[in-house]
Design brief:
This protein has 192 residues and is an alpha+beta fold. The protein folds into two domains: 105 residues, PH-domain like, CATH 2.30.29; 41 residues. The protein contains six helices and seven strands; from the N terminus they run ααβααββββαββα. The strands form two sheets. Strands 1-2-3-4 form a four-stranded antiparallel β-sheet, with helices on one face. Strand 3 and strand 4 form a beta hairpin. Helix 3 runs antiparallel to helix 4. The longest helix has 21 residues. 15% of the residues are buried.
Length: 192
């Protein structure tokens, strides 16, 4: 597992301005660069379609104008990547993004009842995942964070902040030895 470097966990000024006075940052990372792949595919596909349309059109000037729009779209998305941060603090999970318009979405850790890590095949190959925060009640502001780098490490960090689950009071306390079932996983010569 690749670890998050200490230099990458230092929150930049664009994240610090959203922190509460009593909060301490646990980890701050940018989203994985793979977040640009869908935008690159869309810009390249649009550029190819605009060029084919320009070759067949009676007014090629309009179609050629679209040639500029698709690269500009990708440049805008590319400029947004370095300003997008996932910040996990002692109290919240925040996603801060935007170039012209900044948006900060947060979910309180105390409201979260569960955390799910989803990794697709491309995500496992490229090293990213999706974190899904489960909150009861109405739909939370921040539910899914896609293209998360170091997914296993972030999952473990956030899960440790959510706290240990309370033991079930109806269950009997754990006993040493064989317990009630008679099965001892440490005994390799146990007969069934």
């Amino acid at each position: 597992m690749r670890l998050v470097s200490p230099a990458e966990t230092e929150p930049p000024a664009s994240v610090i301005r959203y922190l509460l006075p009593q909060e301490r940052t646990v980890i701050t990372v940018r989203r994985h660069p793979a977040t640009l792949i869908p935008h690159l595919v869309m810009a390249a596909g649009g550029l190819l379609a605009a060029r084919r349309l320009a070759g067949r059109s009676a007014r090629p000037g309009i179609a050629r104008g679209a040639d500029l729009l698709f690269p500009l779209y990708f440049l805008y998305r590319g400029a947004a990547w370095p300003t997008t941060y996932l910040a996990v603090t002692s109290e919240r999970i925040m996603l801060i993004h935007g170039v012209l318009t900044r948006t900060a979405a947060a979910t309180l850790l105390q409201n979260a009842t569960g955390l799910t890590l989803r990794r697709t095949v491309p995500g496992r190959l490229l090293g990213y995942g999706t974190l899904i925060v489960d909150c009861p009640g109405r739909r939370p502001v921040l539910r899914k964070v896609r293209y998360v780098p170091y997914p296993e490490q972030l999952y473990l960090e956030i899960a440790s902040l959510l706290g240990p689950e309370e033991p079930d009071e109806a269950a009997p306390p754990a006993q040493g030895g064989r317990g009630m079932t008679g099965y001892d996983p440490a005994d390799p010569f146990q007969q069934e």
